[in-house]
Amino acid sequence: MQEATESKEKENMNVLFSTQKVIKEALDKLGYADEMYELMKEPIRMLTVRIPVRMDDGSTKIFTGYRAQHNDAVGPTKGGVRFHPSVTETEVKALSIWMSLKAGIVDLPYGGGKGGIVCDPRDMSFRELERLSRGYVRAISQVVGPTKDIPAPDVFTNSQIMAWMLDEYSRIREFDSPGFITGKPIVLGGSHGRESATAKGVTICIREAAKKKGIDIEGARVVIQGFGNAGSFLAKFMHDQGAKVIGISDAYGALHDPDGLDIEYLLDRRDSFGTVTNLFKETISNQELLELDCDILVPAAIENQITEANAANIKAKIVVEAANGPTTLEGTRILTEKDVLIVPDVLASAGGVTVSYFEWVQNNQGYYWTEEEVEAKLEKVMVQAFNNIYNLSRGRKVNMRLAAYMVGVRKMAEASRFRGWV
Ligand SMILES: NC(=O)C1=CN([C@@H]2O[C@H](COP(=O)(O)OP(=O)(O)OC[C@H]3O[C@@H](n4cnc5c(N)ncnc54)[C@H](O)[C@@H]3O)[C@@H](O)[C@H]2O)C=CC1
Ligand SMILES: O=C(O)CCC(=O)C(=O)O
Description:
By secondary structure, the protein is an alpha/beta fold.
């Protein structure tokens, strides 16, 4: 157990280190001095909390939680909360930096934030999860709020958890405060289109990337790692557009059918944690899934999946990163050498935070939009962001990850400079 935790922390150190390396490269290319990098390489604020939770058997368990605020020069910080057994402080730091980059890329008036709790919600009851969610908000309430730092869903959190968090925050502040959190149920001020927004954004990036590579979506073979919020909506959208989804996976294994999986059946049978492979006898591993012969590969689960150990064996022509941090720097280098087009996480997965921003805007103005309005606005933002970064990468002869970081840091760096921080 101790060994597993240490090896996870080592992986997360690499995730943070790699992110810092690309930020440094991006700032150098943009001509910023070293002090700017010193400011950007870590969150400006990092809170660790201990959350006592009364369990159903009467015992009390103490959980560890984090909230990182990377940079608030542009505006309040924003980003999801992850409930996962392997959450670490380093991982949350890296995730908060990626949120800042996403906000820059899709030009939102935010900096990046991120939270996490070390827990396994799959082993907790509904009421234990409610007590944990409320306890987390009580613990971080002084540093969050609609004009300070706005949480949202991420791995193993959902609209129900957002609803409990909102209710707890509103009780503490003694007024209804829907703009405190996004990804809420519609009846509590959630936005149409938020649930599917991350996958919608990924679908738009796949379409744009396929055009560049001359791949027709109709009949294209798609493999998706992860069948939760991002992965399952994506499978549906790709299937609806005539692509052949030949592989999907969850935390326990993967399914493969070269003729295309029965996506409607899988969507119907998946549980709320994105698990579905437990219903099948014949499965393959997540590693085998990534190496399947396909046109488009979408990692939509966790970090560090495409590495120097497997990148050479990846057969996809396009890799679109729905997950945060699924490809290491070595993995990126190997895929780039093989002429695989990588659409980086900070661009591909930015649809979620974009519609979260729309949700917050609707909460602030108290006037709500239709799903069609939300989707039209998201389409415009994602197409522009994709082409902006693609053109920069071609113009500056850098890969799309570095181009995305260059776009992502620019506004934050300028705002920090105008404020006189650097
Ligand atoms: N939900 C959102 O709006 C956004 C999510 N993302 C990123 O997308 C990725 C997936 O997030 P969601 O779909 O929201 O989470 P989710 O909790 O809805 O689904 C997670 C999926 O990943 C699988 N998984 C978990 N641990 C795994 C492991 N060790 N190996 C293989 N599969 C594993 C689960 O079984 C499940 O199918 C994460 O990296 C998240 O940060 C990025 C932007 C926004
Ligand atoms: O919707 C949001 O505010 C944040 C989503 C998120 O956590 C992410 O993009 O990784």
